[in-house]
């Protein structure tokens, strides 16, 4: 499989077949497994062999297929599939950290990630320092000899700042810190974060990996030693593992993710170019535009691809943003992204609603900001829909 190209691995990687030699991967919808003898049960609880399973919370054949396939795509040694993207964030951080440890994180994060850092980890005695993720000097000033983890979104939600993975990894590794990257907006199609120095990569599989709005899921990727020695014991005892059915849905999503994400990114660029400079916009934010502050980094880190999301900062604040959202005909209003359907979100009142106003201002989450996840519709239809909605904003 290591010699196969990406799209081949996305269709065939990690496949296990039962005695029936089914074409589509089987769903092993079972919570437990039967042992031939009591001695076999005892041996398996001491150490499971390859393709041996105990309990669905510990592992499952369908889940294992998903883990192997996504690891092949990411270029990681191993993966652990979780119940949701936030279960992956929580599992990666909590399994690594203990009271007295120090974390440096980018301040531009999804609201739930900030909750884990600022509320949960601090409650358990972990010191957290937040920095401007695009400022390498800020990272250098913040890391210390006792820094255990650095954490950031490689492309931030929802303001689409791109962080230099290789440069931040070099800074972190100079003090022996583990680099944990939430890679959702960069996508596993365009990002090669592990090659660029990340130790651990996290995805919400709910987004591009499923890509069709069907199921929750997440995944933590890294070395086999980290996944099986650190993450697995924490996850299997705290119950955040992925269900077999959701793993099957994610397997089906992986078969087409390369085709879908490339098409979505191509449309996103067309939309951004068509709307850049529009009279009703304060800002058009898209990393693939040459005017974006990190566009040069996009060329080297993401192969020139700006991702599948554009953000529109609409003149007139929240009232204008709401009029825009309510006037959309093609895109739907929801709070997911990476879907086959285009989705528009108002972060200030939904995904980042819990943040105080001063923190929203600091992060660039203005009352007029709309996050627009580009789907698989025709790009010309999307441009026309956005323009007519802007006319009503």
Radius of gyration: 21 Å
Which structural category fits the helices and strands? alpha/beta
Give me the strand/helix succession.
HHHEHEHEHEHEHEEHHEHEHEEHEH
Average of pLDDT: 96
In total, the number of strands is 12
What are the segments in which pLDDT stays under 50 over at least 5 consecutive residues? none
Give a quick precis of the structure.
41% of the residues lie in helices and 15% in strands.
Provide an overview of this structure.
The protein has 393 residues and is an alpha/beta fold. 41% of the residues lie in helices and 15% in strands. It has 14 helices and 12 strands. The protein has helices at residues 6-12, 38-46, 61-74, 85-96, 111-123, 136-142, 165-173, 187-190, 224-238, 244-275, 295-301, 317-327, 357-363, 379-391; strands at 78-82, 102-106, 127-131, 147-153, 178-182, 200-204, 218-222, 281-285, 309-314, 332-333, 343-345, 369-373. The strands form 2 sheets. The chain has a 7-stranded mixed β-sheet, sandwiched between helices. Strand 5 (178-182), helix 8 and strand 6 form a beta-alpha-beta unit.
């Amino acid at each position: 499989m290591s010699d196969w190209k990406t799209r081949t691995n996305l269709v065939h990687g990690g496949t296990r077949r039962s005695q029936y030699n089914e074409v589509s991967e089987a769903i092993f919808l079972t919570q437990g497994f039967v042992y031939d003898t009591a001695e076999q049960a005892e041996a398996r609880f001491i150490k499971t062999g390859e393709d041996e399973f105990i309990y669905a919370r510990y592992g499952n054949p369908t889940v294992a297929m998903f883990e192997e396939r996504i690891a092949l795509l990411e270029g990681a040694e191993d993966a652990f599939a979780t119940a949701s993207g936030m279960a992956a964030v929580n599992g990666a951080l909590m399994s690594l950290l203990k009271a007295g440890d120090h974390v440096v994180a980018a301040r531009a994060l999804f609201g739930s990630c900030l909750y884990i850092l600022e509320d949960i980890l601090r409650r358990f005695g972990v010191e957290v320092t937040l920095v401007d993720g695009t400022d390498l000097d800020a990272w250098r000033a913040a890391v210390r000899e006792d820094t255990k983890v650095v954490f950031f979104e490689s492309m931030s939600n929802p303001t689409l700042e791109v962080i230099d993975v290789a440069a931040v990894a070099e800074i972190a590794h100079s003090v022996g810190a583990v680099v944990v990257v939430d890679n959702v907006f960069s996508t596993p199609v365009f990002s090669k974060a592990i090659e660029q120095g990340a130790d651990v990569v996290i995805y919400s599989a709910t987004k591009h990996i499923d890509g069709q709005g069907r199921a929750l899921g997440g995944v933590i990727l890294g070395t086999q030693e980290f996944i099986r020695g650190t993450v697995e014991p924490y996850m299997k005892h705290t119950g955040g593992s992925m269900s077999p059915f959701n793993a099957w849905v994610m397997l089906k999503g992986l078969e087409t993710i390369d085709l879908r994400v490339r098409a979505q990114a191509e449309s996103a660029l067309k939309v951004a170019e068509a709307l850049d400079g529009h009279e009703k916009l304060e800002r058009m934010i898209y990393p693939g535009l040459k005017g974006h502050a990190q566009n040069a980094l996009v060329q080297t880190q993401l192969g020139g691809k700006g991702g599948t999301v554009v953000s529109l900062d609409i003149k007139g604040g929240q009232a204008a943003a709401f009029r825009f959202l309510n006037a959309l005909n093609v895109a739907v209003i929801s709070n997911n992204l990476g879907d086959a359907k285009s989705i528009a979100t108002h972060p200030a009142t939904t995904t980042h609603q819990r943040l105080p106003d001063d923190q929203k201002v600091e992060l660039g989450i203005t009352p007029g900001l709309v996050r627009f996840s580009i789907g698989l519709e025709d790009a010309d239809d999307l441009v026309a829909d956005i323009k007519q909605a802007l006319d009503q904003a």
